[in-house]
Specification:
Length: 263
């Protein structure tokens, strides 16, 4: 009889993995995001491949929670090698408590770090509101007109091309960029974050009672996304880690932790 490998998981170790991956904090995340999330807390229970093996053994390897399989995104036509070089913005609908009524989430995303730079919820689409959002984003990131020119990319909706917004961009020294005609996914990263938002556990599918409730919900989402969400496109860093230049240190710490705990 072939001897069992010395590193074979015990039943208790497997049960611990199942317990963790199905906990409220991680039940909607794949192992590729759970492992770095634990590592950032100084915890290590198993490698990504081991977690997948255990999930398969327990017939739990498919998508858990309400998430869908990831969709491959078209590469942006813009390039950034640091934060605050290219921003993308878009508007999406949030359901209100009254049938047929919606609130509108305006959101600016950084291309390099995927950080939510600024957001607001309004009751209509308007270039005036978009202009206010851009000015607020500039202040939050301490941008000044004499810095390297910033690109703001969006689709071709009327709020994105309104005169008030364009005047604001000129005043701030921002270069406007719009999606190419007949290219439906030319603002794919902004669309991707809206998918993440709408498949987030607790998303108010039955509607939000008021605009204040909508703003409260988005505030919680933005904090989670920027500070806790381990983004697959960022080597499972959080957007805030990437935006603040902490990526190399965080990845080195994870590598060191996995080496120590594997021995």
């Amino acid at each position: 009889m072939r001897p069992e490998p010395s590193n074979k998981l015990t039943r208790q170790e497997k049960e611990r993995i199942i317990e963790v991956v199905n906990s409220p904090e991680y039940k909607s995340l794949p192992p590729s995001q759970i492992v770095p999330a634990l590592a950032d807390k100084g915890e290590y229970i198993a490698s990504e491949s081991t977690m997948y093996k255990v999930l398969k053994e327990y017939s739990m390897q498919h998508h858990r929670g309400i998430s869908k399989a990831p969709v491959k995104r078209t590469i942006s036509t813009h390039y950034a090698d640091g934060p605050n070089q290219v921003w993308m913005w878009d508007i999406t609908y949030l359901p209100a408590g009254i049938k047929g009524k919606y609130y509108y989430l305006y959101l600016i995303l950084d291309l390099y770090s995927r950080k939510i730079i600024s957001w607001e919820v309004y009751e209509k689409e308007s270039a005036d509101y978009a202009s206010k959002l851009v000015r607020r984003a500039f202040m939050s990131e301490n941008r000044t007109k004499d810095m390297k020119p910033l690109v703001l990319h969006s689709d071709n909706g009327s709020p994105m091309k309104g005169a008030t917004l364009l005047e604001t961009l000129i005043m701030l020294g921002v270069m406007p960029s719009n999606s190419r005609p007949r290219v439906s996914n030319d603002n794919a990263y902004a669309e991707a974050i809206f998918k993440t938002l709408k498949y987030r556990p607790g998303y108010p599918r039955k509607g939000l009672a008021s605009i204040e409730d909508a703003r409260t919900w988005v505030l919680k989402f933005a904090r989670w996304y920027n500070k806790e969400h381990h983004h697959s496109g960022l080597n499972f860093l959080t957007p805030e880690q990437r935006h603040n230049g902490l990526g190399e240190a965080v990845l080195a710490n994870r590598k060191g932790l996995s080496i120590i705990l594997c021995f």
